[in-house]
Design goal:
The chain has helices spanning 11-20, 88-99, 104-111, 115-139, 149-159, 162-171; strands at residues 4-5, 38-46, 59-66, 72-74, 76-77. With 176 residues, it is an alpha+beta fold. The strands form 2 sheets. It has a 3-stranded antiparallel β-sheet with strand order 2-3-4, with no helix packed on it. It has a two-stranded parallel sheet with strand order 1-5.
Length: 176
Amino acid sequence: MHRIVGSIDVLAQHLVAVVTNPEQYRPAACPHCGYARVWRHGCYHRKADRSRGGARNPVAVLRYLCAACPQTCSRLPACLSPRRWYDWAVQQAVLLLLLSGVSLHGCERASGLDRRTVRRWRDWLHERDEAFAFVLRSRWPELGRVAEFNAFWRNVIDELTLARAMSWLDREGVVP
């Protein structure tokens, strides 16, 4: 199952979609057992607006219950990253600083984020680089022209954006 709905890439768009068209979040089948009937099962709330004041918080994320097994699942819009506090846009900005040669302390000063968070994001991307790069290059061959890590990921961010790349990786079964 795809955890990310790639067509919703702005938080305001998500807030409207949850109210007006929640069906686009419904998964085709249960990710646990594969049964094709999942029912809407309420929602949970997530702090997603990290801007000053966070006027849009909390944000509802729809849940679905499988009719065959007692498991629930949910799907996120492309603007929110799974299991992270910050959205893809913030992570992209910080990763661009790192890829441009700015130190962890420089990123901390520029972004206001703790350097341990910045280091965790950097290490996360390094650990998954080989798998991510292989799948991304198979879809966009022009990305394969750049071999070096920093140059490759700057190219991915310039051409696709981090949110779009991660949404596509999720769709291909590579867990971002």
